[in-house]
Specification:
Layout (H helix, E strand, L loop, with lengths): L6 E3 L2 E3 L4 E2 L3 E2 L4 E3 L2 E4 L3 E4 L7 H12 L6 E3 L5 H4 L2 H7 L4 E4 L1 H11 L7 E3 L5 E3 L4 E6 L9 E5 L4 E3 L23 H12 L3 H11 L6 E3 L10 H12 L5 E8 L5 H14 L6 E5 L5 H10 E11 L2 E2 L1 H12 L6 E8 L5 H8 L7 E2 L4 E4 L4 H16 L2
Parallel strand pairs: 7-8, 8-9, 9-10, 14-15, 16-17, 16-18, 18-20, 20-21, 20-22
Antiparallel strand pairs: 1-6, 2-5, 3-4, 6-7, 11-12, 12-13, 13-14, 18-19
Helix pairs in contact: 5-7, 5-9, 6-7, 8-12
The structure holds flavin mononucleotide.
Length: 392
């Protein structure tokens, strides 16, 4: 698909994938993006997953017609982008491969070959002229792998951003610059699921590109961002600085017999009518946890409600809090609801699990349920709702 006079989208869709990275649900499939810059010299920007290499090579052929690519530029070595490299190198024996030293070291490890006769190693500040277009390379270490480089093409104001600004969901033959669906939800789930641990590194990258006139972002997954690049950069700035996007509450609960669930639902009802902002509720045993993680970062308040389980907290709750802590969760107000039939410990454990997170303020109202919520519990839940609403 032609994006501009010299720029083509040559990516592929994986619509049968069950779990991206064996972890994240992708009901809308996944795209592996690649681009062709057809200037005096032609560059292919990144590869695709190897099972889709034939389709990708055919897309490249369609974009270039009789011409052959001069370069394959590899910005990121994760196999969903890089495992198709070998097929490209066989198909186009004259082409040279452009990448960072760290990426070439990874090629050796992944493929047993780092293409010593055909390689051009680039580092931050280097440029590659294609004629009228020129790629400038910018190191983006740990966004979210160490070898990651992004490339900026000045004449078109295009940032090839590697996995940054990626989104779950395939293109499904739609216009890749306008897939007609909300970007934020699946981009947020992708960001906090995959990149979220590396907020400082994303901030460093945003600082580096802040002086550039970025009009189009070409990520390695999801749509090309051409209409509202500034807004997406602003969202990335919010996410990577761990600031909440808006006032609101995420309630995350676990429940074996339904009593903690009943309390969580009561709180949801109170908060939804109480002016605390939007409220999201998740049963951690059944929901898409990546979505719950995304909403925990999205809103400024979180309520954790859990059954006590073998003098610990319920396993799904432990995993959830550990996932938040691993991603640098901080700067939020947290309400706690615990349940136990003989020796409740869930509240203590949940607080301990959050103890490494910076700037967490626990709500004054803590709710303890002994087996099933009673009249006193509901009053406490109402008080918690009031306290959280008052903080809005
Ligand atoms: C396997 C298992 C272990 C439990 N361990 C504890 C425990 O260590 N301390 C406690 O007070 N209750 C314990 N409980 C009881 C539950 O925490 C308690 O019944 C609670 O009210 C269940 O809430 P729910 O209806 O939301 O599932 C345990 C329950 C199960 C199923």
């Amino acid at each position: 698909m032609k994006l501009s006079e010299k720029l083509y989208y040559v990516g592929v869709d994986d619509v049968k994938l069950d779990l991206f990275e064996s972890h994240f649900k992708v009901p809308g499939g996944m795209s592996y993006n690649s681009y062709v810059i057809a200037d005096d010299r032609a560059a292919v920007m990144d590869a695709v997953e190897k099972s889709f290499a034939d389709r990708w090579l055919s897309n490249i052929g369609e974009a270039l017609g009789e011409r052959k690519p001069d370069y394959l530029v590899v910005l990121h070595m994760e196999p969903d982008h890089s495992s198709g490299i070998l097929k490209f190198m066989e198909r186009y024996p004259e082409a040279r491969i452009v990448s960072s030293q760290k990426a070439f070291a990874m090629m050796k490890n992944f493929f047993g070959n780092d293409f010593p006769e055909r390689r051009i190693a680039v580092s931050e500040g280097d440029t590659l002229s294609l004629g009228g277009c020129e790629l400038s390379f910018i190191a983006a270490p740990m966004v979210h792998w160490p070898e990651v480089t992004v490339a900026y093409e000045k004449s078109g104001g295009v940032l090839f951003s590697a996995d940054a600004f990626g989104k779950f969901g395939a293109i499904h033959g739609r216009d890749v610059t306008d897939v007609g669906e909300d970007w934020d939800s699946e981009a947020r789930r992708y960001y906090f699921g995959i990149v979220g641990k590396y907020g400082a590194q994303v901030q460093a990258l945003l600082r580096k590109v802040s002086s550039l006139d970025v009009r189009t972002i070409c990520p390695l997954h999801g749509p090309v961002i051409s209409h509202d690049a500034g807004r997406c950069v602003e969202l990335y700035n919010t996410w990577s600085s761990y600031e909440p996007e808006e006032k609101g509450v995420t309630i995350a609960y676990t429940s074996v017999y339904g009593n903690t669930a009943k309390a969580a639902c009561h709180l949801f009802g109170k908060l939804a009518t109480g002016g605390a902002g939007p409220v999201a509720i998740y049963d951690l045993a059944r929901c898409d946890v990546a979505e719950a993680i995304g909403d925990a970062f999205r809103y400024d308040k979180l309520v954790l409600a859990s059954t006590t389980y073998n003098t610990d907290v319920f396993p799904h709750m432990r995993e959830f809090i550990e996932a938040l802590a691993l991603r640098g969760y901080r700067g939020r107000t947290v309400g706690i609801i615990e349940n136990g039939s003989w020796a409740p410990t869930a509240a203590r454990v949940m607080k301990e699990l959050l103890s490494g997170c910076k700037d967490i303020t626990f709500a004054d109202t803590e709710v303890r349920i002994v087996s099933a919520p009673d009249g006193e519990t509901f009053l406490k839940l109402d008080a918690l709702a009031e306290e959280l609403s008052a903080k809005s």
